[in-house]
Amino acid sequence: MKTENLTWHAAFVTREHRESILTQKSKLLWFTGLSGSGKSTVANSLDKRLSESGKVTYLLDGDNIRLGINSDLGFSNEDRTENIRRIGEIGKLFVDAGIITIACFISPLKADRESVRKNLGADFIEIFVDCPLEECEKRDPKNLYKKARLGEIKEFTGITSPYEKPENPEIVVNTKEQTIDQCVDKILKYLML
Questions:
Q1: The predicted structure's pLDDT at residue 10
Q2: In the chain, where does DSSP find H-type helix?
Q3: What is the spatial distance between Cα 86 and Cα 94, in angstroms, rounded to a whole number?
Q4: Which of 34, 94, 132, 188 could disulfide-link to 101, CB 3.0 to 4.6 Å?
Q5: Could you tell me if 29 and 101 are in contact, meaning their C-beta atoms sit under 8 angstroms apart?
Q6: How far apart are CA 176 and CA 179, in angstroms?
Q7: 0.85 exceeded by pTM
Q8: Residue 30: left if φ>0, alpha if ψ -120 to 50, beta else—which one?
Q9: What is the C-alpha to C-alpha distance for residues 25 and 55, in angstroms, rounded to an integer?
Q10: For residue range 100-134, what is the model confidence (pLDDT) as tens digits?
Q11: Is 161 a residue of the active site?
Q12: Exactly one of 37, 107, 115, 161 is catalytic; which is it?
């Protein structure tokens, strides 16, 4: 085992101390949904609203993470699982820092999301950005669906690779039926912020 001779080093400054300085409770807000569902748009709007109200936040976005720390990973099921595992660990560190952390990832496999939930416990809040595949394809902001339908992208979630909808997310927003502001309001109401 790779962690056999390692021990977690407890710091003098605790999460509780950092939260008291920041006057907030940190959480990991995990946005999941198909490409084009509006995850990034809702997450960015939420981030802005929280910041404007004086909260300390950080947004972890799928493409940004894959351009950096996870640039060595592809899109096989094994790589997707490792991608989500790493993000979960990063999110856990941010939560320990007292930061309201917004994670915005397709995260198509239920088992991967549940693994992050198990690791963070009550600090994990799953937000399902529900939007029909047809609407996501119509939006197609990055032309990814078009490329997937032409066979130019292999293992594309929703087309040639599965997306497993959350069974019991804490929050569901529907970007086809609700405005971005309505989605953000619903999330803030749940968080009571």
A1: 82
A2: 15-22, 39-52, 62-67, 77-96, 110-120, 133-139, 144-149, 180-191
A3: 13
A4: 94
A5: yes
A6: 8
A7: yes
A8: beta
A9: 10
A10: 999 999 999 999 999 999 999 999 999 999 999 99
A11: no
A12: 107
